[in-house]
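job 3f2a | input accepted
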Amino acid sequence: MALFALLLAAPVAWAAPKDEARRHFNMGIEYIAAGDYERGIAEFKLANEILPHPVVMYNIARAYADIQDYENAILYFEQYLLTNPIDRAEVESYINTMRARQEAALAPPAVTGGGGGQGGGSRPVGPVATADELAELQRHAQELQALATRLAEREQALAEAAEAGEGGGGEGGEGGEGGEGGEGGGEPNPVDGGGEGDAPLALSEKGLVEDLYARVVVTASRFAQDPLTAPAAITIISQDDIRMSTASTVAELLQTVPGLDMMQLTAANPEVSIRGFNQRLSNKVLVLVDGRTVYQDFIGSTLWSALPLTLEDIERIEIIRGPGSAIYGANAFGGVINIITRAPGDVSQQNQVSLAAGTAGLARGSVNLAGRQDRLAWKTTAGVQQLGRWMQDADPSRVDLGSPYGDNPNSVQSATASAMLQWQLSEKGFVSVSGGVNDGLSEFYSLGALRLFGIDSTSTNARVDLGLGPLYVRSFYNRFGGTAQSWYTPTSGEVLGGDILSQAWDTEAQFNESFGADNQHMLTAGVGFRLKTIDWVFLTPGVKVEPHVNGYIQQQSTFGPVTLNGAIRIDRHPLDNVGTRPTARLSMVTRVGEGRVVRLNGGNAFRNPTFLESYTDLFLSTGVDGVLVNSMGSEVVRERTDASFTLEPEKIRSVELGFLDQSNDSFRFEIAAYGYQVLDLIDLGSVNAVENQLEFDEGKGAYIAGESRFENEAPVFWAGGGEIEGAWFGVPGLDVRLNYSFERIVSVDADGDSTPSNAHPTHKGHAVVAWRSPWDLDLSMTVSAYSAQSWPIRSYDAAGQVVVDLVDVDAYTIVSNKLVWHPFGYDDLDLSASAWNWLALLQGPHTEYPLGQPVGARLYGGVAYRF
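job 3f2a | predicted structure (867 res):
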């Protein structure tokens, strides 16, 4: 209680600056709409102190201009111009006009003389304007006329074409006219005592920018929208959340998302799923970086340690819970994770250098630079990362085992760099080029009997984006090359592994256009082409090539309190057994009060077979000396033994009902209940051998127990669950977030018998508390609790036949804390101390997967310098 009383008595501080700034910014809008400019400007200034942004300075200047305080208006407009906005010429015209009015106000007034003169005429008395002064006044008059003409032309253009939604980008925007005008727009009333010559300055037709700090998401529908109208359950991880997090990797940032499973097999090998069905090489979530897929088609997973980005470069992460194939196509099975990086030239972001080091082999550093010059914006990022292994899977002193990696104590060692250039062609047009590279070594657990592997790889990408009003075209190239091999191998045998080269070329064109009264309809349509190639020793010889094409259309319409969103997409896969696949989604969002909605949606999705599942041709050890099993992909089976064999894509049908309340800037509440059906899960089947007899292969020098195919599982899976999440920002300085998830999955066989599936935590709960104290100290605590699990683990018996055993994973809790000190205030230098999973120091490491390494604690310190 004493601490709480001290908190209430302390000066205003904030744990989540964006939420606190949003409160003051929105209050400023309300005051100015009511005509209280003094209090409105004061609220804008508070918002800018908390989270500086050029658009706030624009709003302050605009408000001062409305009340004809030209001195302050010019001051803030000039500060705004220091950020090199795209509307520089327009703002400079405003400044010139205001200076002309100031000069006119300082000129001596005209004085009327006496009546001497015929007819009682009058004449001005006082100084007479010089020729230079008259020329200057004429120049200002011409500028005012030109400005009025230009504004009239722009007003006409806006009347002819509705504002189109953006296909991506961050929250808020650059430039003084980044948002739609609402209250406070148009011509303000003259202040008392003003005559015709003192009429308010005619600024832009959009008025104040009102959506600067608004919550905006782009992943749910491929255009910017309020989460209230989004057709899916969404979680946003902000830059403030990342700054206060103890996470050392991108995947660890996802740990507290409701409905999401993040399990660590090794320090470099987290696996992520949404609403169940996690596994080694998890393959049911589509991961994007700025809308570019980083899904690795050859194994159907995301190699998180190979992503070419740093934590400090992330602006936010949007997580869409539920099927997303109707918009993103194959592999958006359980949901979509879109990692959105900082925009180039975003002057609200400072350049930064960060370093961190600590226990468990942790060491990382990054440099993030950005800038803008007129219409050209740029950014560049570079970083290094190292994480130690949680354990040695084999005793290094064993003479019967060796490793191509020696006694390397690190789970991941990587270096990354990326850069982007963006040229603003017009108010609604841009072109950008970008690229990145990640090079390093990491360990991971593969499927079946492959177990622990190492991969020494280089991942690169190149990208070109073009935006022309409602049309957006994106083309990118992903390349993943390296060597993947067993971490340990018998000294008398050969290393299982070899080189890999996976490449993908993508081109997408998207069209967004709003129409109707008040832009109540938004039409989105797009087409895409993806070409994938793979050359890998684990597959049949030769380069495998797969071209894919797709097309989709989506419309969102608002009718009073109801917003409907319907989408349909068609994907064409080159393999005959996959073929053409349609997916659809339909959502209805109903407003039930200010800032409150009820959401009902349903849809389907699918996951394509990977290259590994289609073309594998590999002889694997069963764990029994001298006994091998031939693992075969579907296309190998079709070619060699059974031309009628088919491997269907995995399929899901889902329905969800949710309620979202963000009616107040001080809290957010969401509850969702869902159910779904999953068919045709793909897995390695049982070993097929004639009469279960072993056959000796002279070439392999071993007995072959038979073949094991990738095939569709017969049972149908039914699941139901719910998620409840609340966030509270009611006390300045305090940020509290709580969520709980429940999920139940059962499999039903052909006879109708059901079996519970417990290969996931049925119950998950997370609590995050952050406090930004008035003493230049920030503190945070995260608690994550998971219920016990039971996983089916595949092995072999003495005859080389498949045996499946259920292996338990105990319930576990992860507790983490972080302390950040700002020795010189909040402007430039941060010193931090973090303790991740520190409970492991007291009760020992925990295991998150039966074959995974025990997960220990990390204690580390960091320094970040912004300039």
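job 3f2a | The first strand starts at residue 111 and ends at 112.
job 3f2a | closed
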